[in-house]
Amino acid sequence: MMKGVSFFVTLAILALASSLSSAYDPSPLQDFCVAINDIKSGVFVNGKFCKDPAMVSANDFFFSGLNIPGNTGNKVGSNVTLVNVDKLAGLNTLGISLARLDFAPYGLNPPHTHPRGTELLVVIEGTLLVGFVTSNPNKLFTKVLNKGDVFVFPIGLIHFQFNIGKTAALAFAGLSSQNPGVITIANAVFGSVPPINPDVLIKAFQLDKNVVEYLQKAFAPN
Predict the structure, then answer these.
(1) CB-based burial of residue 180 (10 Å sphere; 0-12 exposed, 13-18 middle, 19+ buried)?
(2) Which of 103, 119, 112 has the alpha carbon at shortest distance from 163?
(3) What percent of the chain has pLDDT over 90?
(4) Which entry of 8, 77, 83, 146 is 20 to 30 Å from 130 by CA?
(5) In the predicted structure, residue 17 carries a pLDDT above the cut 50
């Protein structure tokens, strides 16, 4: 009797694991599905309409420009150039995207999450302090990366990259979604539209009202 119960429990766990593994970008059911905005000439699959295969060309699978440094002349001193399905239509249903990360000296890619993708980062130039925080009880995993080093940030977890060198830094990252999304924590909390009620933030962060109001003004969208 116990063997039978054990078998069905194992089967149930495997079924659950299988369903979870396909909860994000499922495997495509065709060789490709080039995204198209014209719904009259496409078929809706996995978030984007598919271009008629007879109309697909090599350019649908091509993107140019990741050799160009991003503008790091901003408050945080970093720039992310993302190549997702909106930039490269041939990525549709393939479950992958790519990003170039440029850092000024002491530039920061602030704490953020990708709700739909794991990130695999490789440092091309410079030295980065990187890390991610787990779900409760919020353990920090952090590492200093040099040229050629690789680090993975699990899907959905808060993470960051900080250039601790005196020179510019460059990294590339692959993400396990055609559209991984990004939530920058400070911007989301203090710069949402409409704003979160200050009383909520005062209580949550144990801050003075004046500090919360200052932060909301600082992160308010332009």
Answers:
(1) buried
(2) 103
(3) 73
(4) 83
(5) no
Burial 5-33 (b: 16+ CB within 10 A, else e): eeeeeeeeeeeeeeeeeeebbeeeeeebb
Single pTM value for the model:
0.82
Closest by alpha carbon to 107, among 73, 67, 158, 68?
A: 73
pLDDT score of 18: 44
Among the residue ranges 15-19, 98-102, 114-118, the one predicted with the least confidence is: 15-19
CB 13 within 8 A of CB 6: no
Q: Which residues of 163-179 are buried (b: 16+ CB within 10 A; e: fewer)?
A: bebeebbbbebbbbbbb
In order of 32, 61, 65, 145, the CA distances from 48 in angstroms are 12, 15, 24, 36
Mean pLDDT score, 104-126: 97
Confirm if 188 and 196 have CB atoms less than 8 A apart.
no
CA distances from 152 to 44, 142, 171, 176, 192 (A): 32, 11, 13, 11, 28
Q: Which residue has the tokens 């495509």?
A: 28
pLDDT of residue 201: 98
Q: How does DSSP classify residue 20?
A: H
